[in-house]
Amino acid sequence: MKRETKLMHYGRMPTPGPANPPVMRASTILHDTVASYKGTKLARESDDAVLSYGRRGTTTAHALAAAISDLEGGEACFLFPSGVAAVAGALAPFLGAGDHLLVVDTIFPATRTYCDTVLTRLGVTVDYFPWDTTDLGAYAKPNTKAVMVESPASQTYEVMDLPALCADAHARDLLVIADNTYGSGWLYRPLDLGCDVSVVAGTKYLGGHADVMMGAVAVKGRATAALRKHTHMTGQTIGPDDAYNCLRGIRTLGLRLERHEENGLALAKWLADRPEVASVVHPGLPGHAGGEIWKRDAMGCNGLFSVFFTEGFDAEGFVDRLSLFAIGSSWGGYESLAMPSNPEAGRQFPNTTRSGQMVRFHAGLEHIDDLIADMQASFDAATG
């Protein structure tokens, strides 16, 4: 079955019945006999879809977890209340005091903060490595347990050679955990490329409507049992309403990402020709760092790209004058966004060839002519 068709049928119930799995709000699940209660507790240890207690999710969350697991090519999927919570949940089962974690230097800043504060306080040593690394020999230690990656990179979108990196990591008996929020299981599948764990902030493209907070961790192989045990012991789940809204958003995931990609590439190409722009970083543009690897391993791009403006250009003023591009955290919803950023802050291997202020854009689902006209008006006002 084609994946576009699968999107329409995730969680489908027997007919006659609703097209979407209904919202089930529950904490206590009642039984008529002790035997039934004991049987349910036993069954849930090997079947994540068993309805046993609200802390392990209701049928609404189970349907969403099964959908994301299939999208990502995993054996199982576990849900968390936010993307950062999912990152923490993906790392915690595999690290303890005295262990060493390797993290790609271009990781999402909130992940860096978690690693440098919470994990180090718990006795985990954290080191960073460049995004184009495929041989971890210069960075791995005898106590290294795992590698955290993100491809494309947060904010600057450099593309890692995940198959090569995973092969080297596995030869050293290291787990590889990927932040796959950019690809969200539709454009990119790290588990197919060799990673053991894939983390997605469902707040972004899976939900798609800027109204859900949710994180997911898809897993396969030797990492599955440990992640399942940790997630259940720490009581991680999401509410049924968020699960419902995210599952409903998934129905249009493929169509939305087609439009996001189309608009994002059109804007990136248009901006690249502007005299006020020093450079545009987008995985779909010729010459992008790792762009050929992205063509090999991925199935398209989303609506994200970043622009480095020329020295002296008032980038923040340009953003302030935009009317269709709002200023706000997150991305992946239907709306267009613009956010000034300093991507090299905190990085140990900064790109020193870039200059000028950077703005990260997210191309929403508006008509491309209106988005370009909005930018044109802001540029005109800067020179008028």
From TrEMBL:
Catalytic activity: L,L-cystathionine + H2O = L-homocysteine + pyruvate + NH4(+)
Listed Pfam families: Cys_Met_Meta_PP
Positions of the UniProt region annotated as Disordered: 1-21
Cofactor annotation: pyridoxal 5'-phosphate
Any one GO BP annotation for this protein: L-cysteine catabolic process to pyruvate
Record-level Gene Ontology MF annotations: cysteine-S-conjugate beta-lyase activity; pyridoxal phosphate binding
Keywords noted in UniProt: Lyase, Pyridoxal phosphate
UniProt keyword NAD, yes or no: no
Stored InterPro entries: Cys/Met-Metab_PyrdxlP-dep_enz, Cys_b_lyase_bac, PyrdxlP-dep_Trfase, PyrdxlP-dep_Trfase_major, PyrdxlP-dep_Trfase_small
Modified-residue entries (N6-(pyridoxal phosphate)lysine), positions: 204
Family as reported in the entry's similarity comment: Belongs to the trans-sulfuration enzymes family.
NCBIfam families: cysta_beta_ly_B
PANTHER family tied to this protein: CYSTATHIONINE BETA-LYASE-RELATED
The protein's name in its UniProt record: Cystathionine beta-lyase
Record organism: Pararhodobacter oceanensis
